[in-house]
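Worked example 2:
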Amino acid sequence: MLTYYSDDHHLHHGKCELIDGQLMPCFEKPQRADHILQRVKDRQLGDVLAPRDFGLAPIERIHSKAYLEFFKSAWARWQEQGGKGDLLPFTWPARTLRRMIPNDLHGQLGYYSFDGGAPITAGTWQAAYSAAQVALSAQQEIANGAHSAFALCRPPGHHAAGDVMGGYCYLNNAAIAAQAFLDQGRKKVAILDVDYHHGNGTQDIFYQRSDVLFASIHGDPTEEFPFFLGYADELGEGAGEGYNFNYPLPMGSTWDTWNAALERACQRIVEYGAEVVVVSLGVDTYMEDPISQFKLDSPDYLTMGRRIAALCLPTLFIMEGGYAVEAIGVNAVNVLEGFEGA
């Protein structure tokens, strides 16, 4: 299996995030991708390739131009104002406020964010842009006939909606790749999100569409981030009704519980008649993950990969979450090796 990867991810290294009422060191850090890359090499999974540059056009198929312009320019504006440290929002357009875009940088940052977990630094735009190109390059590999490919993306993407960042995510790599498949002639794409946290951005992007089926297995949002999306009764809307499936699970869920949800999700993908699968590969379901509450162990990820392979569909793996840094490489590559039959 080919892996696509860019060193540009090192350009994004936030100093802090707002969590549990405190500014804490970021759990989403460069070492995550470094450990996965080293494991890919140690296990001789396949060649590691630099991405091609497909430009902004495929990104603009998912994200609004206004949002992208804000994101690209935010750091320079912050520096012009004499800003120090990471750029983080401190106000949001809550339910009692108007949904309008102010002129001020901080007002715009609040408008385009949903939490304080996506710091903007000097290199964040370039890192996110390159991660999208990593996803598009792996997607093109499958479009050219490969059965599978791995996009080692960082920063992750599944919490980013069309014009909203948050949850460590800025550009939705999985959605960008899925749209590229459609633009190149595929009619039905499935996105299987196995991250511990619900892929709220991906769901929002495709919620009113029938050309992408979205299935997510995640922590129950009554208790877990992102709290305000990911419930089982969210089945799509309009043309998208019946093409969105959420499988929220309680804290402490073990492999047996998680695997039962995977079976239901895979059955939906089969019934849908998907032509290709995009897997939002989060391994923060691991039992020792510092910000997640499932109890999967490393061998379970081999079994997960084998089950996804049993769909017998071209499959694009796109890296999302996972914050037990010492184990992230083993767990992510276990999924890929399980898929490959190792």
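The chain has a mean pLDDT of 97. The CA atoms of residues 298 and 328 lie 9 Å apart.
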